[in-house]
Amino acid sequence: MLLATFKLCAGSSYRHVRNMKGLRHQAVLAIGQELTRRAQGEPAPGVWINQVRRRSSLLGSRLEEPLYSDQELAYIQQGEEAMQKALGILSDQEGWKKESQQANGDKVLSKVVPDVGKVFRLEVVVDQPMDRLYEELVDRMEAMGEWNPNVKELKVLQKIGRDTVITHELAAEAAGNLVGPRDFVSVRCAKRRGSTCVMAGMATHFGDMPEQKGIIRAEQRPTCMVLHPLAGNAAKTKLTWLLSIDLKGWLPKTIINQVLSQTQMDFANHLRKRLESNPASEAHC
């Protein structure tokens, strides 16, 4: 696969390929990431993580897509990097500590990751099939402000290809207004590999969405949400959400930890209510 792709990039056998702007860039990028991963000897992740980290599938999808501008390619690469980093954190099962747990089994774990900081991990089981969650969280993401009080507004600023979008999210005040309004500009990508769906993202710069007066521009570090059918019961979905955010401003760590942990628990509760009150429509996952 690598040898064939190098031939493609070099254009040694396909003269017309040499004039296709961006194609060689994308192929070399995918190969370089694969070689780096192998050289670093990354530990083998779980099966469901492996499914979405297959570089051959990534390269194949890139060659099928239309050509992009340099800026669009940069956004695509940033989304891929966010997914790889976030899945790498989730694949390491060591060091997680329980922050809170509900009677229904919902729980939030946390750990401190070098060069990243404290990250939070929500684990819940939702009594809905995976396609229904994907539809609500990806296809209808701009409606999140209708059912999640922690989100005032979420807009898609730009869509790039099949998998990548740039979004602006305005978050509500939290902790009794101790945490003022924040907004986030992020690149997000969504992938489905086999029976697993992954949505990942991180902060990015988008020239048409500058910082707004009276609102602190916070930053989302590499984060992701993983969906896959519950073992033995495809009518239910296991949802794992890795959250890592720099809220900016002068906030005590105790307040930050409380806000982020509670935000995840609230999200699970609001998501269930949304799914129960809105019958499933045709899924697009």
From TrEMBL:
Q: Name one GO biological process term.
A: cholesterol metabolic process
Query: Main site of residence?
Result: mitochondrion
Q: How does it assemble?
A: May interact with TSPO.
- From the Swiss-Prot or TrEMBL record, state where the protein is found: Mitochondrion
- What organism does the UniProt record list as the source? Chinchilla lanigera (Long-tailed chinchilla)
- InterPro entries tied to this protein: StAR, StAR-like, START-like_dom_sf, START_lipid-bd_dom
What this chain does, per the entry, is described as: Plays a key role in steroid hormone synthesis by enhancing the metabolism of cholesterol into pregnenolone. Mediates the transfer of cholesterol from the outer mitochondrial membrane to the inner mitochondrial membrane where it is cleaved to pregnenolone.
What name has this protein been given in UniProt? Steroidogenic acute regulatory protein, mitochondrial
**Which keywords label this protein?**
Lipid transport, Lipid-binding, Mitochondrion, Steroidogenesis, Transit peptide, Transport
Spell out the GO cellular component terms annotated for this protein, sorted alphabetically and separated by semicolons. Answer: mitochondrion
State the Gene Ontology terms under molecular function: cholesterol binding; cholesterol transfer activity
Top-level taxon of origin: Eukaryota
Q: In which pathway does it act?
A: Steroid metabolism; cholesterol metabolism
Q: Which residues form the START domain?
A: 67-280
* Gene that this sequence comes from: STAR
Q: Which Pfam families match?
A: START
